[in-house]
Specification:
Elements: H1 5-23, E1 40-45, H2 51-67, E2 70-75, H3 80-92, E3 97-100, H4 109-117, E4 122-125, E5 139-142, H5 145-159, E6 166-172, H6 178-191, E7 197-204, H7 209-222, E8 228-231, H8 234-246, E9 256-261, H9 264-271, E10 277-280, H10 286-297, E11 305-307, E12 312-313, H11 315-321
Parallel strand pairs: 1-2, 1-3, 3-4, 4-5, 5-11, 6-7, 6-8, 8-9, 9-10
Antiparallel strand pairs: 10-12
Helix pairs in contact: 2-10, 5-6, 7-8, 9-11
Bound molecules: alpha-L-arabinofuranose.
Length: 327
């Protein structure tokens, strides 16, 4: 169908305007406030389930801005289908690089193959996928979650060295997620060496404070005398504290608590003696992610696995670290 003269004139004006903008260096602001001069990164975040996640999102957004990377940010609200949709949308928009923190480990091969076919490199951040084909992503930046579970287990073994029997409730993270699977494994490997340790209840609180509270309330009904709670993150430990107090128990004294993350709220509870030990899991992955994104976009070699360095905190160490804690 032939276009009218008016329509063709409007089209020509639009092309000239677009060309002028592009020749002028495209100084318009990106979708997240960053410059559009450089690369475009499509980032699919898990959600906003925890203090850790909030800090991780801020780190990614700030680092993208500093690096001049145009960040297209999408929040999956802890649903895998939302992440798959976001990744497909990034492919359609032809972004330079896609990064995501997979809500669960399995079920990614199809969409990752689509990204590969479109020639868009993918970087995993924070959480892994269980795909057998490692060519589907360039790099995985994040913590060693098995080691985190082991560190929690090591503390439990020391803390209860003189006890004859120890009953444990485990508050698991999101079912099927890498941190829940790996932390459970690392912890079980360590405490499994001594039969006096018994995990009497193990349920998912989905890494949320409300989930941790609900699960602890339910566990206390059938196991009112547990000795220890191992929470896969601080938020669930904080929920457990509320449930223990409501049941008339003193958290950190009547029931010991060990958790993972070391976010400010968790560290405050540790410093006040309501949590007994925390294994750090750093959410500050933004700078490493942007460096890796720039390298893969430039076709440079990157490490397939970049492991975050982390420590542990007891009560005294938490009190000392709190004033300078960034998240
Ligand atoms: O994947 C990292 C985990 O996810 C953190 O430990 C937890 O707090 C978050 O929700």
């Amino acid at each position: 169908m032939k276009k009218s003269l008016a329509a063709r004139s409007i089209g020509a004006i639009a092309i000239v305007t677009a060309l002028t903008a592009s020749l002028a260096g495209c100084s318009a602001s990106g979708s997240d406030g960053g410059s559009t001069d450089g690369l475009t990164l499509g980032f699919s975040q898990v959600g906003a389930e925890s203090g850790w996640r909030t800090a991780n999102t801020a780190s990614v957004q700030e680092s993208a801005k500093t690096a001049g990377i145009d960040l297209k940010f999408s929040d999956a609200q802890q649903k895998q289908e939302n992440q798959i949709k976001a990744i497909r949308s990034f492919i359609q928009q032809n972004v330079d690089v896609i990064a995501f923190s997979p809500v669960v480990e399995s079920g990614w091969d199809t969409v990752l193959k689509e990204a590969k076919a479109a020639g868009i490199p993918v970087v995993l951040t924070d959480r892994a996928v269980d795909s057998a084909d490692e060519t589907l992503y360039e790099s995985f930046i994040g913590s060693d979650f098995v080691e985190e579970g082991e560190k929690a287990g090591d503390w439990v073994v020391d803390e209860f060295a003189d006890a004859d029997s120890v009953t444990i409730a485990e508050l698991q993270g999101t079912t099927g997620s890498a941190p829940a699977v790996d932390r459970q494994e690392g912890f079980a490997d360590v405490i499994g060496e001594d039969s006096k340790f018994e995990i009497v209840a193990s349920q998912s609180g989905d890494f949320t404070r409300s989930g941790g509270k609900q699960v602890t309330e339910a566990i206390l009904k059938s196991n009112p005398d547990i000795d220890l709670i191992f929470a896969h993150n601080d938020d669930m430990a904080l929920g457990a504290i509320e449930a223990l107090e409501a049941a008339g128990k003193k958290p950190g004294t009547d029931v010991k608590i060990v958790s993972i993350d070391a976010v400010k709220d968790g560290m405050t509870a540790l410093s006040e003696g309501q949590i007994n030990f925390i294994v750090e899991c750093s959410p500050l992955l933004g700078d490493q992610l942007m460096e890796t994104v720039e390298k893969v976009a430039a076709g440079e070699e990157v490490e397939k696995r970049i492991v975050t360095e982390e420590t542990t905190f007891d009560q005294e160490q938490a009190t000392a670290a709190l004033p300078d804690r960034k998240y």
